[in-house]
Amino acid sequence: MRGTVSVRKIESILRVAERRGVARAELLARIGVQPSDLQDGEAQLGLGVWRDLWNVVVEVLDDPGVGLDAGRQIDRGYFGVIDYIVRSSATVGEALAQGGRFFPLANTQGRLRLVRTDCSLIVERHLVGDESLVLPPQVAEFALAAMVQLFRDAAASPWSLERVTFRHAEPADASSHRDFFRCPVEFGGACDSLAVAVSVLGTPMRDPDPHLHRLIATHGERLLADLPPSSNVVDDVRRILVHELPGVRNGSDQVASLLGTSRRSLHRRLKEAGTSFREVRDGLRRELARRYLADDRFNVAEIAMLLGYADASAFHRAFRAWFDEAPAHYRRRAGG
Description:
With 336 residues, this protein is an alpha+beta fold. The protein has helices spanning 7-19, 24-31, 47-61, 66-72, 81-87, 92-102, 137-154, 175-181, 210-226, 233-244, 252-258, 263-272, 277-293, 300-306, 312-323, 327-334; strands spanning 4-6, 44-46, 110-116, 120-127, 161-165, 185-186, 192-197.
């Protein structure tokens, strides 16, 4: 598992477990981490440590709500540089934009994508690798709860969410989710996200400081520049597309945003790798199309949607161009 997570995040979960009576030494021994590995609060550890710690904490505490509980207990400064950038912003809207910009400093494979509609700002949480397949659902709940807790604490006046959405299935009892977020909470969505009304974006922050904001943001830009580059841009694009295809049409702008780069830079790096965004996307579509057609749980219209086509006829045309036969004929041959 590639990518890193800040020691601050590891420490926050250890403290939550300690408050519940679980010894830090026991947890560190279970995940193979030495106390000396945590001495530098600005250091980064592998995402595998983050995954293993959460799995152990969920197992030991046997509490499905530990993610929400941990999120509401974050300490001031938990997000490091991001915390100070957010708190010194002028408004909630500016703080959200800055939080999205610098989010990789907390998790090198994490991204916040901000989508503006007429009435709302949707803050989507994405992982550019395949970690979402192995992390327990409490991690997503912790991530959104921690963000909300930071912004509630940093804003000068109370503000409300419109909606919270999680990718994972609804738990047996979601009352604690609704109590914490104080808005409708949906499960089984396309991604983990928060919806904020446009009218909320102008809410002032408690401690705006333009001079400090410029200073810390400049430092943040340097830290972003120092993050290790991805070793394989093709793999990164494929991993994002696996999750994003249903919402991608001509989606290189969207994928570039989630990778924290520009569309132009993404296309240049793919060209250097001997391919293009279209070739990577269509290659993945070909692989997934055959896999879905071999599975009788999906009809052709649903497969078209999952692969990001506007309609079934567009998928039919693409499939014929790839394999010189109709999807239905391939399905019969494959026994799906």
